[in-house]
Amino acid sequence: MDSATRRRALAALATLPLVPLAGCTDGADDPDAGASGTTATDGETPTDGTSSDGGTVTTTDGLDLREANVTAVTVAAAGGGSYRFDVTLLHDDDGEDGYANWWQVERLDGTRLGRRELRHAHGTREFTRSATVELPGSVDCVVVRGHDRTHGYGGQAALVTPDGRLSLRSQGSEPTTFGPADCP
């Protein structure tokens, strides 16, 4: 192959999309794994369909995809007062400059107990990430909230008990205050 042909072939390869190479892995090299040693797990599935309403993209469940919506949480005891939280978020990371940049576990009064940083966009689909959080013995219900770089709080939050009972609730643009009566 002469050098001109080789240059054309390399130029053609350079224009191929690298999408299959992007995204998360479940290995230790995942940049989403975070400094705490948590591992990222992909539970990515397409959304169940969206509709546009005056610039607001919503799911068939009525979730505003501009917000970082918590759609599912599973909790498992990890020993020593620690619990593994597997949190599923749904956000339109493709539709704006911002993306869902973290989720956190907090007491009902808003005191943060643990946070899972998210370092890149995940597209417009549900994705699940995990973290281990220590819960004080006096805590029998926590709030799990998502957050995005552009809008901050908003969307759907979850109230969760250490034994895994779950209640999903809408919140405003500022963290909604929840009380014991809101817990599942």
Describe the structure.
The chain is mainly β and 184 residues long. It has one domain: Sandwich (Immunoglobulin-like). Helix content is 7%, strand content 39%. It is built from one helix and eleven strands, in the order αβββββββββββ. The strands form three sheets. Strands 7-6-9-10-11 form a five-stranded antiparallel β-sheet, with no helix packed on it. The chain is globular. The chain starts with a helix and ends in a 13-residue tail after the last strand. 30% of the residues are buried.
Which labels suit this protein?
11 strands; Immunoglobulin-like; mainly beta; 4-stranded antiparallel sheet; 39% strand; 184 residues; globular
Topology readout:
Blueprint: H1 3-14, E1 45-46, E2 50-53, E3 56-59, E4 69-79, E5 82-90, E6 100-106, E7 112-117, E8 125-134, E9 142-148, E10 155-160, E11 166-171
Antiparallel strand pairs: 1-8, 2-3, 4-5, 5-8, 6-7, 6-9, 9-10, 10-11
